[in-house]
Amino acid sequence: MPKTKQNICPECGTEVKDPYKTWELIAPFPDKKMRITMTIFGMYECPKCGKKFKGIVSKAKLGAEGIEI
Ligand SMILES: [Zn+2]
Asked: What 3 state SS string does 50-62 have?
């Protein structure tokens, strides 16, 4: 499954490796397979221009069969 990269600075295009802050958001409703989607968001700070921006770090699906990332 291809991952969408969201850790690219919108100002200068620099890739920021790690977010300085992360938090999870859990979808209130399950999908068709009765799995809950958990999205991990992160706040990034560009080391080049100092721009702070928000992006999705990863998504995980929590279901009866375990965790699917
Ligand atoms: Zn930047």
From this structure: CCEEEEEEEEEEE
Residues whose CB is under 5 A from ligand 1 (ion)? 9, 11-12, 14, 46, 48-49, 51
CA of 53 to the centre of ligand 1 (A): 9
Tell me: the pLDDT tens digits for 7-65? Answer: 999 999 999 999 999 999 998 889 888 899 999 999 999 999 999 999 999 988 888 67
Rounded Cα–Cα distance for residues 54 and 40 (Å): 11
Distance from Cα 46 to the centre of ligand 1, integer Å: 5
- The structural domains of the chain, with segments of one domain joined by +, span 8-51
